[in-house]
Amino acid sequence: MINLNLSDSDEFKAFAQWGSRFAGDGDGVRIGLQGGYRTDYAFITISGETISSNPTSRSQKSSNVIASEAAYPDVEFPEVAVRWGLAEREAFRIAVNSGLGVNGINLYAFGTYGKGSGSGDFNYRGPAGSYASIFDTNPAFPGWSALDLYPAGFTPIFQSDDEDSSAVIGAKKEFGSGLTLDLSTGYGSSRIDYSMRNSINASLGPNSPTSFYDGSVEQIEKSVNLDASYPVSIGLYEAATLAGGLEHRSEEYSIIPGDQASWEIGPGSPGLPCCSNGFPGYAPVNSGTYSQDSHAAYADLLLPLTESFSTDLAVRYEDFSTFGESFTYKLSSRYELTPSFAVRGSLGTGFRAPTPAQTYSEGIAQFLPSASATITTAGRFSPIGLVAQLLNNRDGVNIEALKAEKSRNYSLGLVWNTDFGLSTTVDIYEIVIKDRLSTTPYYVLTADENAALSALNIPNLQAIYYANFLQNDYDTKTKGIDIVSTYQREMGAGTAAFSAAVSYIDTSITGGSRSTNPYSKRLTEDALPKARATISADYNIGGWGFTTRARYYGEWSYWQDTFPNTATPGAAYPKYDPQVFGDIVFFDISAKYDVTEKMSVRVGADNVFDTYPDRARWQTFRGLVYSRNTPYSTDGGYYYARVDYAF
């Protein structure tokens, strides 16, 4: 559970920050403003922020550029055709929080709105090498080739424009008996519009545009909640609290089709690839609106058994229109052995139903599986869609409708707060998850299967090399330990504060298809560092403040898939070759100075020694230098300056 505290301050304050990478790219600006107004019975607080950042690039010459240079020596090709790094990004966000007291009833309303856009490069398409088929001539367009438009090839640029909004209004009242009632309703929406530029639908030949609207996806959620709490006496326990509530929630997921040119199969097909190259648009047949509803009831009993020992029991019943019922619980306790030392623990169950997006969404992309392969069309399809129905005709294949994930969790912890400034918590835990959702192994479509899909004449179902699906695929057990410690003391004329957070997490596959597939098993278990740590030190003296921080990540691994050369029904990549990435430490520093009581200036650098991880062995033919799967930034050092001002 995460407790979010909304600001209700009536203070006016602002900040501005500029930063850039040591390599000279990725510079960006953040500007924020907050203000409010308060009376004895009402308040309103408004916060806003705008962000603008330029892309980064950590790339090298790709094999497609090298092959194209050799085939067309008189054409000038780009040295770096793809910018592998952070995408260009612009965003604006605003949040409003308000409250009003009327006749003993507290009315409240809060909401957020955000809008942003970002763009990034796809793989370079050169006239020689893996993407050469785009530039072929075709009898449907005599005398024309995509070389007329892109003589040095092209890099499609993918853009997403997002818009998010949320709002909650409610009323809360506390009665003389101690009963508290809270009635609220909420609304949230999230929409992403996809587009491509510097691309082509080669099957349309000279009639193809170079920019496409590829369609949109949108999620809308609505909820109504009634919460209540009441102090109760249970036997000898007079300070108990009983809480509970009811909830109705609805979810609606929509796929909105793109421009016709983004998904149309033109007269140049099958010789020339169809659809907006890089990311085919959503066709009307792939689009639609899907929904599910749920109703829930929940209760919580907080029982102080003694002054030093308390326990809390929570239960929740939920009924989904698409997945049926669930019952979950959580039991937690805390025992103070001394005023400064306590033991805590919990056990419980969890339930997570698939969303309409997970059940119905389908996505297709074109990419390079290896340096020697040709352009490949691949996709993740709905487990109840046409592609799944076709593959279920194979012996031994059973792609099913999704069901809910279920979990059990246990934790035990220690809390130690001393009178000399040291505070420490230690928590060990175990989480068991059954029927986890994951993409299946890859199914390579046979020529007959592709012919059957093509006969349906459905856009986006043409010449698919492989397909996979979300399924309740495997079971896991995760064991971990978290240690957090802080220490504060006076040092000289100033105050020093130290903190350390260390975690070790080990996840193992315990059942399902991934337990028998060596590649999938190792990829899941070792793809993230098991050990992480952050250690920081702060020192404040006068108007100055100094911070140093070290961030540690343990070793992790990535496995390169070996694409099968034949369309083996249901084939998963049978070979894997791991690259182990060593542990790494990043150091951050910053200094702050209070210019006046209202104004402060901070300068600093993250990754001050400009440390980079091991270079990747795989996917270098695409121009990659560092793995795209790293759990940390691969863009090197970042320096910044920030000004804060309170009016």
Question: What would the keywords be for this entry?
Answer:
54% strand, 6 helices, globular, two-stranded antiparallel sheet, 647 residues, 22-stranded antiparallel barrel, mainly beta, single chain
Structure description:
The protein is mainly beta and 647 residues long. Helix content is 6%, strand content 54%. It is built from 6 helices and 27 strands. A hairpin with a 3-residue loop joins strand 11 and strand 12. The protein is globular, with a radius of gyration of 29 Å.
Chain-wise SSE layout:
Layout: E1 13-21, E2 28-38, E3 42-53, H1 63-71, E4 88-102, E5 105-121, E6 157-174, E7 180-197, E8 212-234, E9 237-256, H2 260-263, E10 288-304, E11 309-320, E12 324-338, E13 341-352, H3 356-360, E14 363-367, E15 376-381, H4 386-391, E16 405-417, E17 422-439, E18 443-444, H5 447-455, E19 466-491, E20 494-512, H6 518-526, E21 531-541, E22 544-553, E23 556-561, E24 576-581, E25 584-594, E26 599-606, E27 638-646
Parallel strand pairs: 15-19
Antiparallel strand pairs: 1-2, 1-27, 2-3, 3-4, 4-5, 5-6, 6-7, 7-8, 8-9, 9-10, 10-11, 11-12, 12-13, 13-16, 14-15, 16-17, 17-19, 18-19, 19-20, 20-21, 21-22, 22-25, 23-24, 25-26, 26-27
